[in-house]
Design brief:
This protein is α+β, with helices and mostly antiparallel strands. The chain has 11 helices and 13 strands. The protein has helices spanning 2-24, 55-64, 100-112, 123-126, 135-138, 143-148, 183-192, 196-205, 227-238, 251-257, 341-353, and strands at 67-74, 77-83, 93-94, 213-216, 221-225, 242-243, 246-247, 273-274, 279-280, 289-290, 302-306, 310-315, 320-326. A hairpin with a 2-residue loop joins β6 and β7. The radius of gyration is 23 Å and the shape is globular.
C-alpha cells in the first residue's frame, strides 16, 4: 500500500510539473500570417516568452529619440504597436530613403515581366545623352549600377538634372550614395508606358494592401504612408517577395537584392542595407568602416534605411519585421545614424526579445 501511495504521489507531481511546464512554454504560431485589408492578428509578448520588464525601457528610449511609431511583427502577427507624440495608426509619414527599396522591388517586377533587364545599359531605356558624361562613359552605366550605387556619377550633386550628372569614375568602380536611383523610376515609366506610381500601385502596393503615395519633389522622391503599410512591405520582404500564395516579386531577384551587389561596399545590395558583412561605407563618405553595419543586431538582418531614422528591419532568423518612423534621433545627424541610433535601439530590443 505504501509503495502504491508513493508511486501515486510521484505520478501526481510529475503530472503537475508537466502541466506547469506546458503553461509557461511560449506558444509561437509557426505559420506565416498575412493581414487582410481591415484586420491584423496579434500575439502577446508573454506568449513569446519575452522579457516584459524590458518593454517600458524600450518605449522610453523610443519616445526620447523622437519616434512617432514603432511596430514589431513575428510571423506576420503584431507583437508591439506603439505611437508617440500625436502620431496614430492612420497618420502618414515619410519613408525617406527607406522608400528606395520600393523602387528596387518595382524594378524587379518590371524585369520579370520582360520589360527590362538590369544588365542592360540605362541609355537603352532613356536614350543617349541622359547624363552629362562623355557618351562612352554613359554607356557603361547599367540599370544594375543604379541599383547598387556604382554609376560613377558626382555624388555631391543631388538634384538629378542632366547638368549635374557628371563623370567621376567608370561605372562599377566606385560606390557613392546619391539620388541617381531616381532614374530607375524613369526606366519603369519608359518601359511600361505608365507613370511609375501607376505601375507601382498595380504591381505591388495594391496587391499587399498598402496605403500611401509618392511625392516626386524637385530634389527628392519620397514615399509616404502609415506605419502598417510600411510593415506590410517588410512582411513581403521577410517572405522574399511572396504575399500569401502569390509570388509578387521573383524570389531569385529578391535574394540578389539582399545580397552584396558589388565588391566595394559589402553592406549594400540593390538599395537595401545588409548587416553581418565585413565592412561598410556610409552615404557621403568614401571611408571603409570595418565590421557589421549594426553590431548589436542579428547578422542576417537586411534593412530599409532612410534619413531621420526611418527603418524597416527584416530578420529572417527570428521571422521578425520591425518598423520605426519618426523624427531624427539625433538632430545633428539626420541623414544616417549608423552604429549610433540603430545600435542603441537594438540593445533595447535585445533586452526584450532575449
Amino acid at each position: 500500500m505504501r509503495i502504491f501511495a508513493h508511486f501515486l504521489m510521484i505520478l501526481l507531481l510529475s503530472s503537475s510539473c508537466k502541466k506547469k511546464e506546458a503553461e509557461i512554454t511560449p506558444s509561437v504560431p509557426d505559420t506565416m500570417y498575412f493581414p487582410s485589408t481591415n484586420s491584423w492578428e496579434t500575439i502577446s509578448i508573454s506568449s513569446l516568452g519575452w522579457n516584459q520588464n524590458a518593454v517600458q525601457p524600450l518605449k522610453d528610449f523610443l519616445n526620447q529619440k523622437g519616434t512617432k511609431s514603432f511596430m514589431v511583427l513575428v510571423n506576420g502577427r503584431i507583437v508591439m504597436e506603439e505611437y508617440f507624440n500625436g502620431h496614430n495608426a492612420t497618420t502618414t509619414w515619410e519613408w525617406n530613403s527607406a522608400g528606395k527599396t520600393l523602387v528596387a522591388s518595382t524594378i524587379g517586377i518590371a524585369q520579370q515581366e520582360n520589360l527590362l533587364s538590369i544588365n542592360k545599359k540605362v541609355s537603352d531605356y532613356l536614350g543617349a545623352g541622359w547624363t552629362n558624361m562623355p557618351l562612352p562613359k554613359e554607356n557603361l552605366i547599367t540599370v544594375k549600377n543604379l541599383l547598387n550605387m556604382t554609376a560613377g556619377n558626382d555624388d555631391t550633386k543631388q538634384y538629378m538634372i542632366k547638368a549635374n550628372l557628371n563623370y567621376v569614375a567608370d561605372a562599377g568602380t566606385r560606390w557613392a550614395y546619391s539620388n541617381i536611383f531616381q532614374k530607375l523610376t524613369e526606366v519603369v515609366s519608359s518601359t511600361s508606358n505608365k507613370s511609375f506610381e501607376t505601375y507601382f500601385n498595380e504591381k505591388l502596393k495594391n496587391k499587399i494592401g498598402m496605403e500611401g503615395y509618392w511625392n516626386f519633389g524637385t530634389i527628392f522622391t519620397i514615399y509616404q504612408s502609415n506605419t502598417k503599410s510600411m510593415a506590410r512591405f517588410g512582411l513581403l520582404a521577410l517572405n522574399k517577395g511572396k504575399w500569401n500564395n502569390e509570388q509578387i516579386l521573383n524570389e531569385a531577384y529578391f535574394i540578389e537584392s539582399i545580397s552584396t551587389s558589388q565588391n566595394i561596399n559589402p553592406s549594400y545590395g540593390y538599395l537595401w542595407w545588409l548587416n553581418g558583412k565585413s565592412s561598410f561605407i556610409i552615404p557621403g563618405e568614401q571611408k571603409v568602416n570595418q565590421g557589421f553595419l549594426v553590431p548589436n543586431a542579428p547578422a542576417d538582418m537586411y534593412t530599409a534605411m532612410g534619413a531621420k531614422d526611418q527603418r524597416i528591419y527584416v530578420i529572417p532568423s527570428k521571422k521578425m519585421v520591425i518598423v520605426r518612423m519618426g523624427e531624427a534621433s539625433d538632430p545633428t545627424n539626420i541623414n544616417f545614424a549608423v552604429s549610433g541610433f540603430d545600435n542603441e535601439l537594438w540593445a533595447k530590443i535585445n533586452a526584450v526579445i532575449k
